[in-house]
Specification:
Elements (H helix, E strand, L loop, with lengths): L3 H23 L14 H27 L6 H17 L4 H12 L1
Length: 107
């Protein structure tokens, strides 16, 4: 993993720079009320969703690590982590959750 880290760091920097150039330079047309300020949405929102996803993955992995300390809880931990992962992926796509999220943005 130590050999792979510099390669992944460089790829991450390249992809972030590319995403920033697309978000701030290529997003067209300019908004009539906000001007160019709105373009940060194209970069900030995907970054926030990625951060939330990674926090959730870290949470699930932490539960699995804590629960797998004893041999008897390993099987239960795997089922719980699998269930949490499935629920965490499905919940954002439920119509009720999407409706609440969009109504919060509309205010």
């Amino acid at each position: 993993m130590k050999r792979l880290f510099p390669i992944l760091a460089i790829l991450t920097a390249i992809f972030l720079a590319y995403a920033l150039s697309l978000a701030l330079g290529k997003a067209t047309p300019t908004d009539a009320q906000q001007g160019d300020v709105y373009r940060i949405i194209y970069y900030h929102v995907p970054s926030a969703w990625t951060a939330f996803l990674l926090f959730f993955i870290n949470f699930v992995a932490s539960i699995q690590y804590l629960a797998s300390a004893k041999l008897t809880t390993q099987k239960a931990a795997k089922w719980i982590v699998s269930a949490l992962g499935i629920v965490g992926v499905i919940v954002p796509f439920l119509p009720q959750v999407q409706g609440e999220a969009w109504s919060a943005f509309a205010r």
